[in-house]
Amino acid sequence: MSTSTRWTVVVLAVVVALIGALWLQLQDDDAAPGGGTAAARDRRDADTAQALAGPRARADLRPCPAASGSAGPAPLRDVTLECAGDGVPVDVAAALAGRTVVLNLWAYWCGPCADELPAMAEYQRRAGDRVTVLTVHQDENETAALLRLAELGVHLPTLQDGRRLVAAALRVPNVMPATVVLRADGTVAEILPRSFADADEIAAAVDPVIGRETGGGPG
């Protein structure tokens, strides 16, 4: 083998190694909080049922909605997630079928999300049975999510969605917090990629849709 050929082989090997290192770095970046794509898992290996028992007791979340027997929103029909409050698997589409739903997408490390969650809880209190507010935690650290909800005193039902399957299925922009309003027939009424300061702001954005769905309020 000539000297020039040997150098060519060496250069090619270095290029391949650099490409491999760059690919691994991109994979790590995507899996980090706030990364550009969904995390690889719904929750961490450390978040076993035993490890989550204490945080779940502290968070004291309301149960996730039960399946109604209907198919529910078409984009969500292949999505099954864990209910953060008790670990029970939830067929998301079936659980939301026949309901007017406000989905609030958030993560434990998101400051504006923490500011908004108590407002979502207050909005649910005011709205009563007209609407179901369901939060969706979009990071694989389920323990941190439960502890954050306990700290905030927010007891809304919550789905654990480390892979961000709900956002992908509903084509929600990659921002947090984000809110999606689903009609009772399963179609998307509004996607609101923004934060809300209080329950009044949420009502101003959501109630016109809720009113049309329930037959009351603004037409």
TrEMBL record:
It is found in: Cell envelope. Keywords: Cytochrome c-type biogenesis, Disulfide bond, Membrane, Redox-active center, Signal-anchor, Transmembrane, Transmembrane helix. The keyword Transmembrane applies. InterPro entries: Redoxin, Thioredoxin-like_sf, Thioredoxin_CS, Thioredoxin_domain, Thioredoxin_ResA/DsbE_sf. It comes from the Bacteria. The keyword Chloroplast does not apply. Residues 70-211 form the Thioredoxin domain. PANTHER family: THIOL:DISULFIDE INTERCHANGE PROTEIN DSBE (PTHR42852:SF6). This is TlpA disulfide reductase family protein. It comes from Mycobacterium hippophais. The lineage of its organism: Bacteria, Bacillati, Actinomycetota, Actinomycetes, Mycobacteriales.
